[in-house]
Automatic annotation (TrEMBL):
Residues 46-61 have a biased composition (Basic and acidic residues). The chain crosses the membrane at residues 190-210, 217-234, 254-271, 319-345, 365-389, 410-429, 435-459, 479-496, 502-525. PANTHER family: MAJOR FACILITATOR SUPERFAMILY, MAJOR FACILITATOR SUPERFAMILY (MFS) PROFILE DOMAIN-CONTAINING PROTEIN-RELATED. InterPro entries: MFS, MFS_dom, MFS_trans_sf. It comes from Penicillium cosmopolitanum. GO terms for cellular component: plasma membrane. This is Major facilitator superfamily (MFS) profile domain-containing protein. One of its GO terms (molecular function) is transmembrane transporter activity. It comes from the Eukaryota. It is found in: Membrane. It is a multi-pass membrane protein. Residues 46-82 are annotated as: Disordered. Keywords: Membrane, Transmembrane, Transmembrane helix.
Length: 541
C-alpha cells in the first residue's frame, strides 16, 4: 500500500516540477552522484549522464552518497522513526518464534510461547529426540531462506517480500498447529522458517537503508534490543500457560499467527519501500512516463544484464560472501558460536532452576527476565560508543576521508565480549542448592548484556563494510548462526544430561573465551583484512 502511494507521490511531484519549473525535460536535475567514477559532477541530468562516453557500463549505486531527493535517507520523503518502529516490531516476530519453539522443545516443557513439547510428544507418540527435529528444521529454514530472500530484496525491494512472505509464514504455521503427526509438523515448520526468513534479514537491511553510519550507532542497538524482547520475555507467559488446563497446545501456534497477522497489517498500511535503488527506479519510470523519453534511467538500469542473469548473480552473492569474504566467515563463526551458547544456556534453565532449586515452570519463566534486564542494560554503553565514533569521524576527516573505517563499529563488541564468558563461568560454578539462585539470575544479566553488545557490533560492522549489498552480507551471517542453532536444538539437552549443568556451562564458557579476542583483533587489523576483499571498500576519499 505504502509503496503504491509513494510511487504516486513521486509522479505528482515530478509532474509538478516539470510542468511548472522547467521548459524542457533536460533541465530536470536529479542531484544524483552515486557512481564509482569521480569525474561526474554532483549536479547533472540523467540525459547528460547517458551522453557520456564509456561510463554507462561502469555505473553503479553508491550508498555512501545520499543526495537524491528520492532516496530513502532524505527526511522529506520518509519518516524514519515510524518506519524503524514498524520494522523493529515486525522483526521481533520470527525471532520470538525461533526462540520459543526451540527452547521449549529442548526443555521438554511448554516454557515458551510457541511449542508445547510435552503435549505434542504425547499426542504424536514420539521420543524427545524426534520431537526436537521440527525446531531444528525451522531454524535451518530460517538460515537457508535468508540466503534467498536477502538477494531478492535487492532486486525487488524490501516491501514486496514482507507482503508475500508473511502470509505464507502464517499459513504454514497454522498448518503446523493442525498437524496430525510429527512428519507433517516437520514439513510445515521447515516451510514456515523458510518464509519467516524475509523479515529476519530485510529488517536489518532496512536500517542500513534508513540511517547513516553515525545514526546507526543509536539505531542498531535499540533495534536489536527490541528483537531480543521476544526470546527473553516469551518464557514468562509460556511457563504459566503450561499450567493451565483449558488451553490446548495448538494455542501456541494460534497466538503466533494472530500476532503475525497484526504485524502484517502494520506493514501493509505503514511501511514504505526503503531500498534506494528501487525508489530511484520508480523515479526513472515516472520520468519516462511524463516525458516520453526512454533515455531516463535509474542506476540499477545502467547495468545491461538480462533479468535471469541478474537473478542468478543476486542469489549467488550471499554464498560468495560466505565462502570468499574473510570478514563474513569470521563473524559467521563468531555469531554461530554465540547463538549455540545462547540456545544451550537457555536450555539449561530447566536443568538448573527446576532440578537444582525445585521451582515450578512459571517461576522458571520468571528467571528468564534476568537475560531481559541484561538486554536492556546493553543500551548503557551506547553513548560511550557514540563518543568514540564521533572521535573516529573527526580523525577520518583530518585524513581526508569521507567517513570513518568500519572498525569504528566494534566498540560495543569490545565492551560486551568479556561479559559472555564471565556470565557462563559464573552460572556454571554457582548453580548449587546452597547458593542463592539470585546469583545465577545476576549472571544471566551479565550474559544477556554481552550477547546483545556483540550482536549489535557484528551487524553494524558487516553493514558498514558491505554497504553496497547489506542484505546479502547480513544473510550470510544469518545462515550459519541459525543452522548452528538448529543443530544445537537437538543436542543441548543431551549435553546437560551427560555432562551436568556445571561442566556444560564451563565448556561453553571456554568456547566463548576462545572467540573473545575477535573484535579486538579486527579493530587492529580489520583494514588489512578488508584489503583482501573484492566487495568491502577500504576507505573513500
Amino acid at each position: 500500500m505504502q509503496s503504491f502511494l509513494e510511487q504516486r507521490r513521486i509522479y505528482k511531484q515530478l509532474e509538478k516540477q516539470i510542468v511548472i519549473k522547467h521548459d524542457q525535460p533536460e533541465d530536470v536535475r536529479t542531484h544524483e552522484r552515486r557512481y564509482w567514477y569521480q569525474a561526474l559532477e554532483p549536479r547533472h541530468t540523467t540525459r547528460e549522464h547517458l551522453e557520456r562516453e564509456g561510463d554507462v557500463e561502469r555505473a553503479d549505486y553508491d550508498p555512501s552518497v545520499q543526495t537524491d531527493p528520492y532516496t530513502i535517507n532524505t527526511r522529506d520523503t520518509l519518516g524514519g522513526n515510524t518506519d524503524m518502529m514498524v520494522t523493529g516490531i515486525e522483526r521481533e516476530r520470527p525471532s520470538r518464534t525461533s526462540s520459543t519453539d526451540g527452547e521449549s522443545e529442548m526443555e521438554k516443557k511448554k516454557i515458551i510461547l510457541v511449542t508445547a513439547l510435552t503435549s505434542t510428544r504425547k499426542l504424536f507418540n514420539t521420543s524427545f529426540e524426534l520431537e526436537t527435529v521440527p525446531t531444528s528444521v525451522f531454524l535451518i529454514g530460517l538460515g537457508m531462506g535468508s540466503m534467498l530472500t536477502a538477494p531478492l530484496s535487492e532486486l525487488a525491494g524490501r516491501s514486496p517480500l514482507y507482503v508475500i512472505c508473511l502470509p505464507c509464514f502464517m499459513l504454514f504455521d497454522m498448518e503446523a498447529g493442525l498437524s496430525q503427526n510429527v512428519g507433517q509438523r516437520i514439513v510445515c515448520r521447515g516451510l514456515a522458517g523458510l518464509f519467516g526468513s524475509a523479515p529476519l534479514v530485510c529488517a536489518a537491511a532496512a536500517l542500513v537503508d534508513l540511517w547513516s553510519i553515525i545514526e546507526r550507532v543509536y539505531a542498531f542497538p535499540y533495534f536489536v534490543i527490541i528483537t531480543f524482547l521476544g526470546p527473553t520475555f516469551g518464557p514468562l507467559p509460556g511457563g504459566y500457560i503450561n499450567q493451565t488446563l483449558f488451553l490446548s497446545w495448538q494455542w501456541v501456534d494460534w497466538v503466533t499467527v494472530i500476532v503475525c497477522g497484526f504485524l502484517l497489517l502494520l506493514v501493509v498500511l505503514f511501511l514504505q519501500e526503503t531500498y534506494s535503488p528501487i525508489r530511484l527506479n520508480w523515479k526513472a519510470k515516472q520520468l519516462r512516463r511524463l516525458t516520453g523519453d526512454d533515455r531516463y534511467r535509474a542506476p540499477m538500469e545502467f547495468n545491461r544484464v538480462y533479468f535471469p542473469r541478474r537473478i542468478a548473480l543476486a542469489l549467488g552473492r550471499p554464498f560468495v560472501f560466505y565462502v570468499g569474504e574473510l570478514i563474513i566467515t569470521i563473524f559467521s563463526c563468531y555469531l554461530g558460536v554465540i547463538f549455540v551458547i545462547l540456545y544451550t544456556f537457555s536450555a539449561g534453565y530447566v536443568s538448573i532452576f527446576e532440578k537444582v532449586y525445585h521451582i515450578d515452570q512459571g517461576r522458571t519463566g520468571l528467571c528468564f527476565l534476568g537475560i531481559l534486564v541484561g538486554v536492556l542494560a546493553s543500551a548503557l554503553p551506547v553513548p560511550l560508543s557514540m563518543k568514540y565514533t564521533r572521535r573516529d569521524i573527526y580523525h577520518a576527516r583530518d585524513r581526508g576521508l569521507a567517513r570513518p573505517e568500519p572498525e569504528s563499529n566494534l566498540y560495543m563488541a569490545m565492551f560486551g565480549a568479556p561479559a559472555i564468558s564471565i556470565g557462563l563461568f559464573w552460572m556454571g560454578w554457582t548453580a548449587y542448592p546452597h547458593i542463592s539462585m539470585w546469583s545465577l539470575i545476576i549472571s544471566s544479566v551479565v550474559f544477556g548484556f554481552g550477547v546483545v553488545c556483540v550482536f549489535v557490533s557484528a551487524y553494524q560492522y558487516v553493514a558498514a563494510a558491505y554497504e553496497y549489498h547489506p542484505g546479502s552480507a547480513l544473510a550470510s551471517l544469518q545462515m550459519f548462526r541459525l543452522t548452528a542453532a538448529g543443530v544445537m536444538a537437538v543436542i543441548a539437552d543431551l549435553m546437560y544430561n551427560k555432562l551436568g549443568p556445571h561442566w556444560t556451562l564451563t565448556v561453553l564458557g571456554g568456547i566463548a573465551t576462545v572467540f573473545l579476542p575477535v573484535p579486538y583483533l579486527l579493530y587492529i587489523w580489520g583494514r588489512k583484512v578488508r584489503t583482501w576483499s573484492r566487495y568491502a571498500p577500504t576507505g573513500e576519499t
